[in-house]
Design goal:
Elements: E1 3-8, H1 20-30, E2 34-39, E3 52-55, H2 65-78, E4 80-82, H3 85-91, H4 96-102, E5 111-113, E6 127-131, E7 141-143, H5 148-160, E8 165-169, H6 174-177, E9 179-185, E10 188-195, E11 216-217, H7 222-233, E12 243-250, E13 256-262, H8 277-288
Parallel strand pairs: 1-2, 1-3, 3-4
Antiparallel strand pairs: 5-8, 6-7, 6-8, 9-10, 9-12, 10-11, 12-13
């Protein structure tokens, strides 16, 4: 009976946000595994006692990357962890988009402004400012050229916290085609979803945002599949990935571009795709038995 730990976050007194976690635990138990969910920062958990640790919903890690990445590396030395520690280290910093672009993957054009860099913001067209370490649209906002002063204050706040900013043109295709999330598990396409734009004009960078507005099932087009597979193939050293999510939007040419490649703790949206539960459980069991 394989022993499997699903790493999550400590929700405290609040309801847990991972709707998939209890469903997945039941599916793993029904398939013959001993599966538990544990907060990644629980000091009492002996991670080395599990055959496999799956980073499932550690959704507070972006606030604590300096703690999270070393934790992943420690667990990776004690037992098997998915995805591998070297993948997590690379993927937690969204400067990986530059690596994908260098490999020829179509991505949303991105500039980076670290603390101390000269502040240069677009003077033509809407743009987005967000941190290289972030999730759920945290510290992200959309601006027009007329809102230069507000955007500068936003950058100053991030730089005060030691964060590097990303500056991207606002991809208007998202207002028409939405953002498509292609989910891979166990090396195969699991399912796909689509959501509408998260960043609406005038929403403050520090305001709470709905991370997945109007989420719905989606059937990916051949062009979307091709870009997603190119992105996955460009991950350094092409490691074996248990889970991956490729977020796509349409560029000005109408062709899909990578908005984000999520290899750390992607929401699986199993509540929207209940038919995928068995495949996820089987892929986890297969990985645990290797």
């Amino acid at each position: 009976m394989p022993r499997i730990a699903l790493a999550t976050y400590d929700s405290g007194a609040e309801p847990h946000k991972d709707q998939d976690l209890p469903v997945l635990l039941r599916a793993l138990a029904d398939a013959g595994a001993e599966a538990v969910a544990r907060p990644w920062d629980d000091p009492e958990t002996e991670w080395g006692g599990y055959d496999l640790v799956v980073i499932r919903s550690t959704w507070d890690y972006s606030w604590r990357a300096d703690e999270f990445v070393p934790w992943v590396e420690r667990v990776g030395k004690a037992t098997r962890i998915a995805n591998p520690a070297e993948v997590v280290r690379w993927n937690t910093d969204k400067r990986y988009l530059g690596d994908l672009a260098a490999a020829g993957v179509p991505v949303v054009p991105t500039r980076y402004l670290a603390p101390g860099d000269p502040v240069e913001l677009p003077s033509d067209g809407d743009y987005v400012v967000k941190p290289t370490f972030g999730a759920g649209a945290r510290f992200a906002a959309r601006y027009t050229p007329d809102e230069h002063g507000t955007a500068v204050r936003h950058l100053a706040r991030m730089h005060e916290e030691g964060l590097t900013a990303m500056v991207q043109p606002y991809v208007s295709g998202i207002d028409v085609g939405g953002e498509r999330a292609l989910q891979y598990f166990g090396g195969r396409l699991l399912h796909a979803s689509r959501k509408r734009a998260v960043l609406t004009p005038g929403t403050a960078y520090d305001a709470d945002k709905v991370a997945h507005p109007d989420l719905e099932t989606w059937t990916p087009a051949p062009a979307e599949l091709a870009v997603a597979e190119r992105a996955l193939a460009a991950v350094p050293e092409a490691p074996e990935l248990l889970c991956a999510r490729v977020d796509l939007v349409d560029g000005e040419d109408g062709q899909p571009r990578v908005m984000e490649l999520e290899l750390v703790e992607p929401n699986l949206f199993l509540f929207l795709h209940p038919g995928s539960v068995a495949a996820v459980a089987e892929a986890i069991l297969t990985a645990a038995r290797r």
